[in-house]
Amino acid sequence: MDKTKDGCSTSSEEDNVAVAKAEMVKKARNDDLKKLKEKFAKVQKYNSKAVELEARRLNNDSYAKNEARQEWIKAKEEERKNMKLKGITEKNSHLLETAEANQRRAESKKEKEKNAVNNYGWNVFSEDSLYRGYEKRLKNLPTTPESAAKAEVSGEDYMDYAQQSRLSQDVIDRVVNDQKKRDEKNQDFSKRRTYFKQEKVDYISERNRSFNQRLGRYYDRFTADIRANLERGTAV
């Protein structure tokens, strides 16, 4: 009888140990599964955020500029903190620059000033800009070695317009094709302009209208009194 009780107690203890081990294994697996789910949720959150940022970047042209601006501001703040720790003010910030960086910054500033002068108002229609356009169009009408050799032999000067006896058909075709390409390009860039019925007509062509607008943008505020006197007839 005692042996039977001992056998039953031993088997029950083994069952309890097996159940405890199974519970521990189950708990460990549940913990691992929970950690995996947390990692998956975190990765999914980061992916969703990355997709949203990419959509903003693609749909908004100014997003990249704003992002670069924020990075620049952050870098400047970090630079100010480092300067403050070193006891250097913003007025003396050039002491931290190398000679190469200082020269590069000066050249960049000089280039910006030069571009501002070249692009100012009426300079868009200056002789230099027109000549640059002529040089650009001339690239589509290159002089072939054969035509140059022929001109040297015959003594003809290609700068003497309308003085040559006769042009070849190839030259005429090149000019015609170039003109067709220019017309097609102008059609691609054409757009409907906004006109106002109350607008004062002081131009003779669309180009002259644009030129007058550029002049008015810079000088209307200085000539307001003169124009008013001329319109009233009280100008001296």
Automatic annotation (TrEMBL):
<feature type="compositionally biased region" description="Basic and acidic residues">
    <location>
        <begin position="84"/>
        <end position="94"/>
    </location>
</feature>
<dbReference type="Pfam" id="PF08231">
    <property type="entry name" value="SYF2"/>
</dbReference>
<comment type="subunit">
    <text>May be part of a spliceosome complex.</text>
</comment>
<dbReference type="InterPro" id="IPR013260">
    <property type="entry name" value="mRNA_splic_SYF2"/>
</dbReference>
<protein>
    <recommendedName>
        <fullName>Pre-mRNA-splicing factor SYF2</fullName>
    </recommendedName>
</protein>
<feature type="compositionally biased region" description="Basic and acidic residues">
    <location>
        <begin position="102"/>
        <end position="112"/>
    </location>
</feature>
<keyword id="KW-0508">mRNA splicing</keyword>
<comment type="function">
    <text>Involved in pre-mRNA splicing.</text>
</comment>
<dbReference type="GO" id="GO:0000398">
    <property type="term" value="P:mRNA splicing, via spliceosome"/>
</dbReference>
<dbReference type="GO" id="GO:0071014">
    <property type="term" value="C:post-mRNA release spliceosomal complex"/>
</dbReference>
<dbReference type="GO" id="GO:0000974">
    <property type="term" value="C:Prp19 complex"/>
</dbReference>
<feature type="region of interest" description="Disordered">
    <location>
        <begin position="84"/>
        <end position="112"/>
    </location>
</feature>
<feature type="coiled-coil region">
    <location>
        <begin position="19"/>
        <end position="56"/>
    </location>
</feature>
<keyword id="KW-0175">Coiled coil</keyword>
<comment type="similarity">
    <text>Belongs to the SYF2 family.</text>
</comment>
<dbReference type="GO" id="GO:0071013">
    <property type="term" value="C:catalytic step 2 spliceosome"/>
</dbReference>
<keyword id="KW-0507">mRNA processing</keyword>
<keyword id="KW-0747">Spliceosome</keyword>
<keyword id="KW-0539">Nucleus</keyword>
